[in-house]
Amino acid sequence: MLLPRLIALGLLGLAATAQAASLDGIAVDVTNTSEPVLCAEKDNVAINFASREVKHFQIEAVHPAYMGTLRQDRWEPDWTACEDISEETSTKPHPTMSTLYEDADMRIIGLSFSEFWRPSDTTVTIGAKVERNIHLLQFLKKRGDKAEEVLVIYPGDGYWRIKPLPPEHLEWTAYGSSFLVGPVEFDQRPVVNLKDVAFDPKTVTFTLTLAKGGKASVAIKALNEERLTLDVAFDQAISGVPFAGLRSMYVTEFNADVARIAVREADARSWREEPIMNFRDAKATDAWMGRLVPSRHNTSAPDMMFNRFRASPAQ
Known about the structure:
Blueprint: H1 2-20, E1 28-32, E2 45-50, E3 56-62, H2 87-90, E4 96-102, E5 106-112, E6 123-126, E7 129-131, E8 136-143, E9 146-154, E10 159-162, E11 178-181, E12 185-187, E13 189-191, E14 194-200, E15 205-210, E16 215-223, E17 227-234, E18 244-248, E19 250-252, E20 255-256, E21 260-265, E22 272-275, E23 281-290, E24 303-310
Parallel strand pairs: 6-14
Antiparallel strand pairs: 1-2, 1-23, 2-18, 3-17, 3-24, 4-5, 5-8, 6-7, 8-9, 9-10, 10-11, 11-18, 12-13, 14-15, 15-16, 16-17, 19-20, 21-22, 21-23, 23-24
């Protein structure tokens, strides 16, 4: 009886999200370039978002529908069937860490690795401070006597991960899917090339200077025990390549960071739902990617939502 109840909860969550989302907005091209794999530590899921018009949209991370039933979390790596990578070969020296900014509400930490998978000369700017060789930025939200990490960005390849604050019954939750903001290009894997990543603590906004020209702002709009919402705006629309993408992993329904997709197509009377690996393409105003049943891999990781696509910022 658990599976029907979880599916019902998931559909109710989708309906609530759809009701909260804007009923208008631009329908964008949503395409799937995922490839099947056996190794759970490879990002084989790739969902792309493209439009020549979009200059503003929203990304949300929301706890999965089954979160309230979760009593045991799983986040350890699974190296089963990983022939060309292993725990040993993937282990790197511990990075150096430094606090780049801190106040009563937040902390920004920069990590520098001894080596990164691709060359990068991206700079990181925090206020008037300019840093180099920062391979990972961590955003931590303070509450009580704890600082909860809820967002990370890799300046060298443009990858982000976000998650809501943990619910009361869990001390910690896992990251799952990654996403890209900006012109998505291919360099061994999908990437966004950045010249500079700047953070303004006053507005809680990241500003990305794109290597192909133009800028993007990514502002934390909402953060609580249910969801983290990002407001994304470009100073110019992106054409010819996707303006955003989601990366994740799927091996089986029970071993996946994302297992299903639901899209609300333009003028449709209902959502279209499919297993993530079966989906091909759609013209949609909203896209949800997540899980309806618990996975053995990053069980507490959030579902992801892309919506409110507009040609100009919402008033």
